[in-house]
Amino acid sequence: MTIENKVALITGAASGIGRRIAEVFAAHGAHVAVADIQRDAAQAAAEAIRARGARAAAIAMDVTSEAEVEAGVAQTVRELGGVDILVSNAGIQIVNPIEQFAYADWKKLMAIHVDGAFLTTRACLRHMYAAGRGGAILYMGSVHSKEASPLKAPYVAAKHALIGLAKVVAKEGAAHGVRANVICPGFVRTPLVEKQIPEQAREFGISEAEVIKNIMLKNTVDGEFTTLDDVAQCALFFAGFASNALTGQSIVVSHGWHMQ
Ligand code: NAD
Question: Residue 2 contacts by C-beta under 8 Å, 6 or more apart in sequence?
């Protein structure tokens, strides 16, 4: 099981979970394409990885743009020599009760999580099939791929959708040696989560400490946040697994929140 000398394209890799996955993959010998809508931050993340002696390319990509996804995957293939692993990770959060949810916000969130996953998958599969050397596709799901929480209608819907997409990719990709799996983390302290703490405190009329203790970590076995490295290690395991034995699956990494 190794990702050494594989080319990995990671979306949303300028920050948080995606950035850590890029760093860990590079440390295990992969060549990484750091794709993000934040061009400068992607550049900085790629430079930091190159400074540690690995190969990395910065890819400016809005995952909701068909043209930018096609161009970004082509750039990855050109600069790093192919694409063997896709981590479809870019994401946002918008919280509101359904009756107050703006349709524009619903569509924005669905576009980044679901359209982005489709567009990056399609572009990478075309290269993987043509190259004939198999591949691994990972989707960044969430415990919200399996569970619901109030205020998160499009996020929960989108994260459930990724499991369906992964199952189809697993079935279609098998003949080409392409596997597809979903990682479902609990709460990880990234900018995406830091933003939600005051928002939820306001919505529910409770303190920020109560949001953390009584909402975010309430159903964990030990009241602990999941870490960037916990998620990156799961990604490493899925990406390096060498056969179709592990495909179409999802793994929950959440300190026991949602046991299956
Ligand atoms: P983050 O905000 O730190 O990083 C998200 C990255 O996605 C940012 O760099 C942002 O610029 C990028 N991005 C946003 N829109 C984009 C677009 N249209 N095109 C390209 N890039 C775009 O957040 P994070 O917590 O690291 O989240 C990463 C993924 O992990 C998301 O899919 C999120 O839903 C998922 N997730 C996070 C948690 C958590 O607790 N943090 C838990 C479960 C799942």
Answer: 28, 29, 240
